[in-house]
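user: Please review this fold.
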Amino acid sequence: MNVAARIPLIPRLLSCMAIISTTLFSMGQSWDHVTNIDVDTASQQADIALTLEDGILAVGVSDEFGGSVFLYAQHQGGQDQWGSLGTITRSEPWFGHALALHHGHLAIGAPGSDIAGPFTGAIHMYRVDASDLNAPIEEQNVMVVPDAVTNDRFGFAMAWAGDTLLASAMGRSLLRMTGAVFLCAEVSGAFAPVAILPAQSSDVQVPFLRWFGMSLAASDHWIAVAAPFSGFNSGVAMKNIGTVHIYERDPLAPAGWSLDTTWFDATLDPASMCNGTLSEFQRIEIGRGGIAFSGDNLIMDGSRRYQGGAGTPLAPWQTHTASEPGCSPCDLHIVRRSDPSWDFSTALSPAQDTALFDRSFFGWCAQNDSLLVEWYDQADSTWSTTLHVKDQGGTDTWGIATTLAELEPCDDLRGPMVMQGKQLVRASLRRDPVLCGVAAGVMAVQLQVFQR
């Protein structure tokens, strides 16, 4: 799993004009900065994952040599304090690349694991109980695909749909890398794959599917699966257009879910010029940087024009850049559910006021009718988090209700965010040797906790 080198951002300059704040500037809604959690230092090539549920916070730091998952609990050691529950460390490549927490069950994906063969992948299941002072973290079992083959990368992405764990093996079918998503359930005290979601190219009318399951999302009634490297020309990597598959809960279906909708952006014109190339089919890769349900909306990353290598399995943190005239923007597609179908024709996207703003590749999350997005301002080399709210400024308009400034000039907010209820956690991947005092090639992982 080679990781492409990151093109560095504009260096940040320390000045008396830098905004250092612990309070969110709000229009109608107030968030307070509660605390920071200094997690660990890691290589800048490391991958960071977050999950949060009911006062339990887990962060994964992984690379090709292994990884660690750090667990914290709210009110551990004092009111609103986030104390450590413990750390789980393994030498399996990319251990902690994906995390999913539900009712005390923590799933840790290690897509580079060779337990069942090279890069077959594995998922480690744990029970987490902050009230158990003797053993707050207990290993439950390890899952592998029963018929695992090289390059499955099982555990690359995960999500809970009720008590069922969705887990992708997005490298499935080796040469074609079609991908697969397994449904895993607890049977006699241990989790195991019990079914598989169906997917085939004919459903979506593109010649080939690739990396089905690179990102997953689930709600009470829906599952969404992105296959961002699907497309029309298997010999030209930059023409990956991406597809999305949406499943509806169906008790009569063998797996309990039936395919509702498949989609790709059919409005793109292959005869149009974009970035000097005769085709708009250029690194669209829908869903590569994530997919999420938010109320009655499905939000999908649109990955056109980013810094980093195209087609890299586990790329370093990237930042979207502003689009060029005549090219589709690198945006977040917000799709509304209009019964009896999803209305892809009215896809919206939140935006900043100036083309100087770049959006963090993985730095966004959604809950109900709220969407949080990390932005980088090239003009003054600062980061900020914006809260976009549905119907803010008009029906189906996602207006900015709140802006959260970076806390220090050292902040680098390319990392993931997670929001649950009244809590928000964002990751600052501090890497500037001058401002942060870290060694070259190293980043200090800090979690910033906010509460409203």
DSSP finds two helices and 31 strands in the chain. The helical segments are 201-204, 433-436.
